Amino acid sequence: MPYHKFKCSECIPEREKHAVIKGPGEDLTSCLPLGYLNTIPGTISERGCAYCGAKHVIGAPMKDVIHMSHGPVGCTYDTWQTKRYISDNDNFQLKYTYATDVKEKHIIFGAEKMLKQNIMEAFEAFPDIKRMSIYQTCATALIGDDIGAVAQEVMDEKPEVDIFVCNSPGFAGPSQSGGHHKINLAWLDQKVGTFEPEITSKYVINYVGDYNIQGDTEVMVDYFQRMGIQVLSCFTGNGSYDSLRGMHRAHLNVLECARSSEYICNELRVRYGIPRLDIEGFGFKPLGESLMKVAMFFGLEKEAQKLIDEETARWRPEFNWYAKRLQGIKVCLWPGGSKLWHWANVIHEEMGVEVVSVYTKFGHQGDMEKGVARCQEGALAIDDPNELEGIEAMKMMKPDVIFTGVRPGEVAKKMRVQYLNAHAYHNGPYKGFEGWVRFARDIYNAVYSPIHQLSGLDISKDEIPTDAGFMTRQMISDVKINKDEITPSEERPYTGDYDCVSKLRGKTYPGLSGPLSGAESEPFSDAV
Amino acid sequence: MEKIMAETMEDTLKDRVEQLVDYIMKWCLWQFHSRAWDREKQNEGVLTKTRQLLCEEPVELETPADRCYWVDAVILARDFKATYPWFATLDKTDIKVLMQGLKDRLDYLTITGSLNQELTDPKY
């Protein structure tokens, strides 16, 4: 087994089995790190907790809901507004955060009474909102507060409201992934099947495992609707509470992030017979083939081909402008879970960048299987790295840019390595055909930023050239470009709008004009 | 001489199986469901239908699950033919042998030889 031992972690021998180097001839039966295990004492993990995974990642993107944390105010504050999961209702779920503000006295005397008071106050403060999620935290779980009973009491008193209880305290798993698991199954057990949605198409899907980061979900939903497919619910980006209660009426679960939400798809398959189709929203080839697969399921190939042709014609040339300039760039692909495998191969194939390392903080071995299988030979794969290992890996692999989150990203910057925010994005959305150009543009802007070169000069000792002006990005990047080559006029830097999402809101789709009676009972019967 | 020819054919088959495995690993996700029983169903479902499509045999589309396997199979069969010119030289018997070799290898990599300790977890 090609395990890699970090020098900085020699004092934590258990860490050795959490990193591998993909050598020549290695495959998944010989090259796979351990994963999704309790953090080893002594290693300063960068993981989140199970409460954060449940609330911050999956629950809170639901847009028409009061998201209440039952616990100390710090839990809710630290999971508020750090991820850009926008929504089309003026970002209600991002604007406010709610906590019961549990203190020491409540630990001694109980906090259920105070919880009920908070629920009532929140509904009174926002009379238009009739849905609530309540998230358990470590403190209130340890004292045994029965949130479910309190929620039921409120629903009995106020029949117009509906409350979801998520019992995923911080300690309920090795990482945030434990929370993903718990909230998936809790939603299925408590809420799916309790609401009958309106069916407006013969072709109905749930779009699962996308959190509308800077509009990702809305871009994908636009594609589905242009093909005549009704997106019954989005789990959970820009998703509404009641639409997600109606998930049982879809014909197909289209799954984007298996890491965070395969559980609900698997159970919907077992309990309701709805099949699961895994897709990818990133990259021309994976996205095009994914849209085609969803379309083929319903017999809508022509609609899909038209869309793919239009989008490719519009965006491929602009993408090519960046791809030409990104060839050979070395990348550490250090995101959370699914982008590890969504991106590992396609950025190499379509942008020509070299993935020299992959890591995941909370991914399981299944994610690493996909990541290791998709990255190139020589790549270093790390599970749950600590900060020192990250630094050592950067010194060893010498990347030009890191795709990661804010915390490790800031560390990378201090080492003069550029970083792109893989979780919340810099200038997303990155999904969709246009989004893929925006991603390429952000990589280009990071790698060739003039500040990157200037920051390496020390004015106290380095000689500063005074006879030359600053270099622009293009002056730096175009050293690689063959000037004699004829470039098509469409091949140019990105010309899309600053905001490419808002205009999708309120669009009408001819194929989805009105309810179709009985559509759910005879799905796509003439589609084959 | 016959032995050498047989060995060469075996090497060619092995090499082609590895090319197809590499393609699936790089571009597909259906082989990586989270539990062993799902992976068995997925590999069987998608690769059986891929073989049928490549051999121009009828494909069963009775259930929603069948359609799900089928859409992955259609894309895979298309991509195989477009990516590997040697596919055009194969007859139906060759394709069946190749696809069986592919299925065996994929089952080994993703199920029987997998190091993923979660594959046998009895629950999702």
From TrEMBL, chain A:
Its EC number is 1.18.6.1. Keywords: ATP-binding, Iron, Iron-sulfur, Metal-binding, Nitrogen fixation, Nucleotide-binding, Oxidoreductase. It catalyses: N2 + 8 reduced [2Fe-2S]-[ferredoxin] + 16 ATP + 16 H2O = H2 + 8 oxidized [2Fe-2S]-[ferredoxin] + 2 NH4(+) + 16 ADP + 16 phosphate + 6 H(+). This is Nitrogenase protein alpha chain. Residues 508-528 are annotated as: Disordered. Pfam families: Oxidored_nitro (PF00148). GO terms for molecular function: ATP binding; iron-sulfur cluster binding; metal ion binding; nitrogenase activity. Signal peptide: none annotated. InterPro entries: Nase/OxRdtase_comp1, Nase_asu, Nase_comp1_asu, Nase_comp1_CS, Nase_Fe-Fe_asu. Belongs to the NifD/NifK/NifE/NifN family. Its cofactor is [8Fe-7S] cluster. Residues 49-447 form the Nitrogenase/oxidoreductase component domain. The keyword Iron-sulfur applies.
From TrEMBL, chain B:
The keyword Transmembrane helix does not apply. Its cofactor is iron-sulfur cluster. Its EC number is 1.18.6.1. It holds the Pfam family AnfG_VnfG. InterPro entries: Nase_Fe-Fe_dsu, V/Nase_d_su. The keyword Cytoplasm does not apply. Hexamer of two alpha, two beta, and two delta chains. NCBIfam families: anfG_nitrog. This is Nitrogenase iron-iron protein delta chain. It comes from Candidatus Desulfosporosinus infrequens. The gene is anfG.
